[in-house]
Write a structure and sequence with these properties.
There is one protein chain. With 207 residues, this protein is mostly helical. 62% of the residues lie in helices and 0% in strands. It has one domain. The two termini are 28 Å apart.
């Protein structure tokens, strides 16, 4: 088999895998501890209920992230104001405790750079991908190769506003803040240039 044939077959295999995991197949069920079990935070939604809402909007959107955000806002508006607050507090907990330089390094390689704000939006987008992809990626960032998308293709910003918009649409008021939920320390800083060598497969993704 020629080198060119191997390259072509490898490219086709990668294309197939990414289409499969982005559009059809989820990662295996995550069985490890979840953040709501590890951190005692008052007045949050049950994670099972939270992820059911996220997954429902994702399925209906069929891979369209902005549509998923719109659908999620609509679904949250059907909840009581107390449940919207609980959803928002759990979302804030997931955002705060997923702050990790290990994940930031992978996002940096994927996007050719990743500012503070971009990393916030990236983690919110990761939550939108569902429970299994969220928690598995926090453990193994390289899994982004299967379903990760550059921000220049899919604007990560959006899902972090859904509960706030739903609450405001329902009540006319701002949703209560979540300043009591502390961010993780993030671990060890990474060297920006080294990120591309650590995750070359993410840096080379173009779609």
């Amino acid at each position: 088999m020629s080198t060119l044939t191997i390259i072509i077959l490898s490219f086709i295999a990668i294309l197939f895998l990414r289409l499969l995991f982005r559009k059809v197949v989820d990662l295996p069920a995550f069985k490890g501890p979840v953040f709501s079990d590890l951190y005692q935070v008052d007045n949050i939604m049950l994670e099972e209920n939270f992820w059911n809402i996220i997954h429902s909007a994702g399925r209906e959107a069929k891979g369209n992230y902005q549509l998923q955000c719109n659908l999620l806002t609509e679904k949250l508006e059907l909840l009581s104001t107390e449940e919207i607050i609980k959803f928002n507090r759990l979302f804030s907990l997931l955002m705060a405790k997923s702050f990790s330089y290990k994940i930031w390094e992978a996002a940096y390689a994927l996007n050719g750079g990743c500012s503070d704000d971009a990393f916030e939006y990236f983690r919110s987008w990761l939550i939108a991908q569902g429970r299994n992809k969220f928690y598995w990626t926090l453990r193994y960032p390289r899994l982004l190769f299967l379903f990760g998308v550059k921000e220049m293709i899919v604007n990560y910003e959006g899902i972090d506003y859904c509960s706030r918009d739903a609450f405001e649409n329902k009540t006319g008021n701002d949703i209560p803040d979540t300043f009591d939920i502390d961010y993780a320390d993030g671990g060890e800083l990474f060297k920006e240039n080294a990120a591309f060598f650590k995750y070359p497969e993410l840096a080379l993704l173009t779609w």
